[in-house]
Design goal:
Layout (H helix, E strand, L loop, with lengths): L8 H11 L5 H11 L5 E4 L7 H6 L4 E5 L2 H14 L5 E3 L12 E6 L10 H14 E11 L4 H4 L4 E10 L2 E11 L5 E11 L5 E12 L3 H10 L2 E9 L2 E8 L1
Bound molecules: S-adenosylmethionine.
């Protein structure tokens, strides 16, 4: 299986450590949707289970779908520690396998839908989500059209260090560069694992491409897939778009 290069190997380990305890404002929107759902929910790109395990622990009916074996292994290990038994489907959300059906809510946090940079494939994917919803079900995708600051390029920035083992840190540098036509954002990451004596033990580079989509572009896809009652939380820079299957 292919991933988007930040979620396996060394980069994946560092990502998993960096994200484990984080909470995001958008978590509340997805949580409210799952709490109010009339049936099971499916998280697309459930990763380490950061959000899904909280929802499961609170007694909600939520399954995950994840492409990275490393992320799923972290999720299953953490679930075991918490006494939870999550259902995590292994596979891709681009598009969703037709065997997955009958969900009351399908949601995709942290702009992961933007990994589908090809618009025709993205449209096929949105249709597959609509098909997997039961009547009245809600699709909720996080998205972003990018921020103005990015348009000028930001150069390399140092992100907070991430502890990865006893006395061992990952130093993370990142550069975000928009394409000339503003369609996509290229995110490059360099990770250096630094031991207790300060020497660099390992280095890994990764690059991700994310499609920048304004709300209106995603809304057009939702409408084409037959979803209605569209609602955007947030602004073009950072939003969640919801739509209902009639
Ligand atoms: C930004 S992380 C978000 C993880 C989790 N949803 C959260 O909120 O903490 C994106 C996740 O999507 C997964 N992913 C990326 N492309 C995917 C695809 N085509 N199908 C399934 N999962 C995918 C990655 O492996 C990663 O775990």
């Amino acid at each position: 299986m292919t991933t988007t290069s930040f979620y396996d190997g060394l980069l994946g380990t560092v990502y998993a450590n960096a994200i484990a305890d984080q909470r995001f404002v958008e978590d509340d929107v997805f949580t409210q949707l799952v709490v109010g759902a009339d049936g099971p929910a499916l998280e697309l790109g459930s990763g380490t289970g950061r959000l899904m395990l909280r929802l499961l622990a609170a007694g909600h009916d939520v399954e995950g779908l994840e492409i990275s074996d490393e992320m799923t292994d972290v999720c299953v290990t953490e679930a075991g520690r918490l006494g939870l038994r999550p259902v995590v489907h292994r596979g891709s959300f681009a598009p969703l396998d037709a065997s997955l059906r009958g969900y009351a809510v399908i949601f995709c946090p942290l702009n992961a839908f933007s990994f589908i940079v090809d618009d025709a494939l993205a449209m096929t994917a949105v249709r597959s989500y609509a098909a997997a919803l039961k009547p009245g079900g809600v699709l909720a995708l996080a998205g972003s059209a990018g921020e103005d600051a990015l348009r000028d390029g930001t150069g390399w920035i140092r992100r907070p260090d991430v502890p990865v083992a006893e006395a061992t840190l990952a130093q993370v540098e990142e550069r975000r560069t928009p394409d000339a036509d503003g369609r996509c954002l290229r995110i490059e990451r360099v990770i250096r694992i630094v031991g207790p004596d300060g020497t660099v033990r390992r280095t890994q580079h990764g690059t991700q491409l994310r499609r920048l989509r304004p709300i209106a572009a995603l809304a057009e896809m939702f409408a084409d897939a037959g979803l209605d009652t569209l609602h955007a939380h947030g602004t073009d820079a950072d939003y969640i778009l919801t739509g209902r299957k009639g």
